[in-house]
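Thread title: Can someone regenerate the structure for this chain?

I was given the following input by a collaborator and told the matching structure tokens would be attached. They weren't. Posting the sequence so someone can regenerate them.
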Amino acid sequence: MCQVKAPRAAYSLYNYTLIAIAAIFIIFELIAFRKALEDVPTFLSQIAMMFTHVMGMLKLWMLVYRKEQVVEIKAKLQNKYFQYVPIDDFQPGKKMQREKLFIKFASMFIFLLYSFVGVSGHITAAIMVDKSSVSGIFSGNASCQSFMPYNFYYPFDISTPRKCHYALVYMDISLDIFAFYISTLDMIFVMFLHVLATQLNILKEAFITIRKRCLGKMKMDLNSRIFRDIDHKELEQEMYSELIHCTQHLHLLIEVRQDMENVFSFITLTQVTASLLISASCLFVAAIVPVSSPNFFSQLEYFSAILSQISLYCWFGNKITYASSELPTAIYKSDWLSCSRRFKQAMLMSMGRMERPLYVSIGKFMPLSLSTLLAVLRGSFSYFTLFQRAGQI
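Best answer:
Regenerated them for you:
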């Protein structure tokens, strides 16, 4: 028991240490916030960073608070009851394996992208600190604060280049912690969106191949033409049972979509709202600071990360809508002409249910789709123009 408790205690200590470092960093940002009020670019940059870090802590809280619901969604998507026998080009098992590999690469990309924003700012600032230092001190009017890509309060002395490097390391550790929290939830959310879209595509092919799979299961000729399934009671029963099985799978996926909306709708709403303001502030600050300053590059990188983040949300959300919109046509292609009346009635009910495609909404206001991405971009440039006009007053 002691051997089991020791790793758990060490892991808990590790988690609490990361949370403490992140919380302290936000406190230091709040302390530096009053000084940022004196300068518009610094103020907007500070607001953008604080929004992101607060979102990171909010996402961490959601992962802890909604852990059981997240595990339940995962279990529903991995339900082995809804597996289909492969036939011809319909290979659901291989398709899921390919998509799992894609998810792994996408997860690594998200984490590396978010981490790169802070690390690249550190590298640029460190190079400029070394260039401006002479015999261990800053030359001219330069100071550590002049080269920092992000503004926050330092509780220790940073008057020398060496101590400035320590401050950069502390900043990087804190930013990587936030990147870890944000990317973890984003990876889970994007993974759920992608797996749901993949299962909808598998279900589409299952509806289309329903007759072939039933004939194969009964060891009948796949090319045989039957005018009335009712004259072959075993085939009719198998067709109807398989249709009910597919319909139950559809109902499960609709339920998963609702569960995802209940868990993630608030976080998507806050993320999209924050992305509007953050993108606009990044563009505004990048437009007025010197091109050679670390702040310029950090703002462009930050804007790219925010744009990538919201693009992933909207891209995979759009895949769900597109996949579900194809289901009525797939059901119609299920070779139903010779089917029994009850099969046709069940088929029409499923088609009627899918007249409105599925989507995951943003705070239950608007669907998560590519049109939403365009709306966010338009809104960001509108706020950017507003900030420019306010800065000229």
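The longest helix spans residues 233-288.
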